[in-house]
Amino acid sequence: xxxxxxxINDEFYTPAESxxxxxxxxxxxxxxxxxxxxxxxxxxxxxxxxxxEVKNIKSVDGFIEFxxxxxxxxxxxxxxxxxxxxNAPRNCQFVAYLTEHKEDFGIKDIYISGxxxxxxxxxxxxxxxxxxxxxxxxxxxxxxxxxWINKIIDFSKRxxxxxxxxxLSILTNTFAFPHFKNLDFWCGYxxxxxxxxxxxxxxxxxxxxxxxxxxxxxxxxxxxxLSKSWEHHPDEYMPFWNYxxxxxxxxxxxxxxxADEFAVPATMLKxxxxxxxxxxxxxxxxxxxxxxxxxxxxxxxxxxxxxxxxDTPKTAxxxxxxxxxITSKDLDKPYKAPFCKVILKNKxxxxxxxxxxxxxxxxxxxxxxxxKSPDEIWHPKLFKTRGNQKAKxxxxxxxxx
Length: 401
What we know:
The chain is 18% helix and 15% strand. By secondary structure, the protein is of the alpha/beta class. It has two domains: 16-213, 3-Layer(aba) Sandwich (Rossmann fold); 234-378, no CATH class. The chain has an eight-stranded mixed sheet with strand order 2-5-6-1-7-8-10-9, with helices on both faces. Strands 11-12-14-13 form a four-stranded mixed sheet.
């Protein structure tokens, strides 16, 4: 990462271990074979023997010319000494790993940007000619993530492939979510949480992160084993007040016998196998949420009316009660707005198995209400207070080792 012009500190470097643990899956699978890789956020002006300055890059489209103020460097492994290999700077760990395994992975060429994040001199990723390369790999500045996503998606639409790091909070980001839903990118294999400074010291901040890619990761990502039944535990799956789906408290509670839409914590996207579940939408974000087919219009409810029934602190800030998922104990009144959820649907239905649907949930609740109060219907564990999850959502908090 780098330091931006607006003063936000993005100066965190990816440890070699994090890079190795992720990129080895692609490299040894032959994903980089014969391809030109560009690292737009790797730079070090003190190691001229690592790179050769180039003013043009040959591509299928011909040559792209650079003026004297813009430089891209080609990494020259033949110029490395053993000492060079063992002393790559922290902001060149991507260069070091890919160069070391260039022959193993069959990489054609490796280029880096020559952009100095401290002085702002050189070629920013926003201006770099991504389309002249086959693969983009980097840890972009997290504070410029929207710019980065726009750039990388345009690159992928032209046939480019990529792997990059992003904060865990991107899983609940309404700007990024449409790209998850459209399968423009998905999560890779590992989840780094520690970064280093330029001297190699571990940063005190706990920054849970994910790798995002458009490479095929299904071959090594296992499907989730579903072991719980809605039929046997209907009192553990509260329906939503403003959406035709059920709430699943934990990813471990996804029912194997439920065929309609359900909502789980958005962190499920980290482990989602794209053959197993269909992404329907995000359980928040005004226009996005309201556009989903299962949305139930509750716009006649004001926030004050919501407070009269919901399990929400009376000091809570006002919000549009129609713009995010809210559970219900009796189908008619709101109960609680859970932390951000992703709405999914099981794609792998087994022939001969009995499945249940949202209509069955409605029947269950209505039947129970004939003899019980709403509070008596639901399993006690649904009313437990959950712990503070802020640090786990990529807010840059600290965490004891």
